[in-house]
Amino acid sequence: MPTPRRILVPFDFAGPSKRACDYALDLGAAVGASLSLVHVIERVTRR
Predict the structure, then answer these.
(1) Strand 6-10 relative to strand 34-38, pairing
(2) pLDDT at residue number 24
């Protein structure tokens, strides 16, 4: 199995997201991978 070099973590500040981030941090440290967090904000348009 290939070892990841980069890990992308979606993050929305909810509890499960924080736990996933902690897991990704541990995994990244264990395999020497870099982490990138992404938070997407939906654009609200007026009608």
Answers:
(1) parallel
(2) 96
**Alpha-carbon gap, residue 28 to 7, rounded angstroms:** 7
CB 3 within 8 A of CB 10: no
d(CA 19, CA 2) in angstroms, rounded, equals: 24
* pLDDT tens column, 11-40: 998 999 999 999 999 999 999 999 999 998
**What is the Cα–Cα distance from 44 to 42, expressed in whole angstroms?**
6
Task: Return the structure tokens found at 21.
Answer: 């981030």
What single letter denotes the amino acid at residue 9? V
* CA geometry: angle 24, 38, 14, nearest 5 deg: 70
Q: CB atoms < 10 A from the CB of 11, how many?
A: 15
